[in-house]
Specification:
Length: 402
Amino acid sequence: MLELKPMLSALWRNKVPALLIALQLALTLAIISNTAVIVKDRIAKLERPTGIAVEEIIAINVMAIPNNYDMIGAVSSDLELLRKLPFVKDATITNQIPLSRSGSAGTFYTQPNQEVGGEVSNRYNTDPNFINTLGLKLVAGRNFTSAEMQYFDPSEIRDINVAVITQQFADKIYPDQDPVGKPLYDGNTSHPIEIIGVVERHLGAWVDWSKAGNVAFFPIVRNTQDVNYLVRAEPGKRDEVLKTLVEKLSERDPQRVIKTRVLSEYVARSYAGDNLMIKVLSIVAATLSFIVALGIVGLTIFWINQRAKQIGVRRALGASRSNISRYFLIENSLIAATGIALGSAAALIVNQYMVRDYSQPVLTLLPLAICALLVLVVSLAAALAPALRAANISPAIATRSV
């Protein structure tokens, strides 16, 4: 039977260092448990499927130098050139780059002149080649046709007739219904936009947006001073295609400034904050665990040195090495249990505050239990070497003066 009374008496006589270790463990548990759910949430965010062939796509921005440049005419020639380049699967035009943190959105309704109950969506102006270029999957309906394309100046206001939307947006605006053939109203208007197709997934422009995945595509090209193209290369050929793009477009028309960037760079920038947070929080958690482990090692060694004669007496009276080691490990477990109890309460209180004021993920009991077990393991591992050292104290030490 475990001798809890002598252990508790010993802890009470050394209550200040024991309490400090318990508080250290409590603080560590409160921090790493909340850190763990944040890191888990960020990893899940990074692992979300984009729906896009990110590693195969190159983004091109073309800006005309002359003021009265015929951009609509240039778009047709540029896309024809791009689609004929070696190792190019397809090319499309877009008003904004996916996953770039820059874009536009609008509120859409299911009834004309509706003012409440709409759903906000990211919006893209593009052409029929966008599905193949981006690598999207059409799951219902059809794509645009060339006949449905509209070309006009930015100052013109025209009614949009058709749209392709993402499955997520469809589920929000027409829940439990087939959206194909149903109307969509752009803001407080009376002109219906027919939903002709649904693509499985597209995160849109903003990865941090609460409505990321709500996306609508429209067959529109505006005659602006600059345009964006997206070019999809064959697998493994992206960098090779990238080398020739600027040269070929400049040869076709030198009156423009052309910039290129691979889509994966935009994605890396969009997720840079999340990656940094994961690294920083992981380092903080590891550092805290290391500091706590050092504290436990130091405290256990201190107690062993203080009680060397007592340990020698116990050994002389027949206590085995395993009895001595077990004694200190159980003593350490009592401290750890106190720290874990305090830390669990603190973790849940801190998490409520973070959820309420910072919209952080909720800390459930399972990750809290896992983190508590981790803290206990770290505590026992830190105490193991000093406990084994205590077990090696000779019974002869009892005859010495301390």
